[in-house]
Structures are given as structure tokens and as C-alpha cells.
Write a structure and sequence with these properties.
Elements lengths: L2 E8 L21 E8 L2 E8 L5 H42 L1 H11 L15 E12 L5 H22 L1 E12 L3 E13 L2 H12 L8 E13 L8 H4 L13
Parallel strand pairs: 1-3
Antiparallel strand pairs: 2-3, 4-7, 5-6, 5-7
Helix pairs in contact: 1-2, 3-4
Amino acid sequence: MRTLLLALAVGALSACATETAYQPAGPNSDGGYREQQIESNRVRISFSGNSLTDRETVENYLLFRAAELTVDRSVLDRQKVPNEAANFGGFVIEQFGESYGAWLHNASHGRDSRPVVTHSEPVSISRETTFERDLSAVHDKALLGQIMDELCESLARDLARKRYAGKTVGIKLRFEGFVTVTRDQTVKTPISSAADIRHAVGLCLKRVKFDKRLRLMGVRIGNLVHASEVPTTSPTVERAKEPARENLSLF
């Protein structure tokens, strides 16, 4: 876009009987508009009028000339575009190589022969929460256990709703100072119940040193399979009968 600086001048040319017309100022005349190129995209426009040319007329002439120059510049820019666009493909290929450059050029024009994919399988499903205050694994042990229980139950509901099960359970812990620790536990058979997820989480937590306060806690399950592929016998049944949840401390 061209930047236009406007200026006006109303002169006392009493010898003229009519107001100054809209016209370029001649070499021997002060009446009319003049232009001065300041930068490549900036032009100063001025208009001088006689005593019969009121301020409103001068301002209208200035705006009209500014509009004319803007339109002229837009036409020139549009004429340049086809040439620049024609060379764009060669420029991209030169910068990024023949294969990747050609792909970038086609992608920028919306050309892609690959089929449109509207659905994809999730890689993992997770739940996490950030605490209002940093929690201690010693003084807030019960609360942390309750929060992890809720995360496992929410994750199990997500799996049931989406009809998935997984073989790799992971935890994410963020301590004060933004120190993040992750641990994973892979089981033999895909799981989806809160009890099975919670059991794997407990194994992960045993491998973490809780020497700082906790700020965030999350649980994730990956290595997903469809629920239809899960054996009918749950790992919970195969394992020896474990204590009730309220007696099984995670921390």
C-alpha cells in the first residue's frame, strides 16, 4: 500500500476570477497538485489554490489525487504478480531442493494427490491436573492418592467411551521448579479398567523419588488396541485378590 502525505495551500491569487481547477501544477503556475516521492511506497501530495478555492475543495482535491495514485499503484502491483508467481516455483526448488521444494510449491497452491483422511486413531489417551498449591508426598499423601484415583477412573471412562484398551501406562509428575518426571509400565495384556490402570500406576510411582513438592500429576495409557481385541479375562481377575482400594496406598 502506498503511503500518501497530504498538504494544502490556499494562495492569494486575486488576479484569477475562478477557483483553481483540479489539475497538475504547471512549471509556470502555482495552482494545482504536486507530488514528491519520499520513499518507494510513500508520496507527498500538495495542492495550491487561489483565494477563491476554499479549504474543503482543496482537501477534496488532495484526497481525490491520493485515490488516483493508489489505484495506479494497485494496477502496477497486479501486473507484477503473474511474473513473480511464475518464478516462485523455481525459487523454492532452488532453496529447498527439487523434491521438497516441489512439494512445498504444490502445497502452497493446494495441490496434493493424497486422499483426504477425516479420521485417525489416537496414539494415547491421558488425563492430568495441576494443583492450586504445591502438594507434599508426605503431608498430603492421602489427597495425592485420592487425586490419582480420580485420574485413573476418568481415564478408564475415556477408554470405555472410545472403546479402547492399552498396554503401556505412564505417569507424569511435575515438581516445584518445573522439574518433570515420567515413568512407564508395560503390561502383557491390554487393560482398560480403573483398577488395572491404578495397579500399573503404583508400579510407576515406586520408581520415583519424592523429595520435592508436586505441582502437576497425570496418567496416560498408550499402545492402544480396540476393545474388541481385548481378551475376555481381565488382568484383575488373573492377579491374586488385591486389597480394597482404600487400603492400597499409591504414595
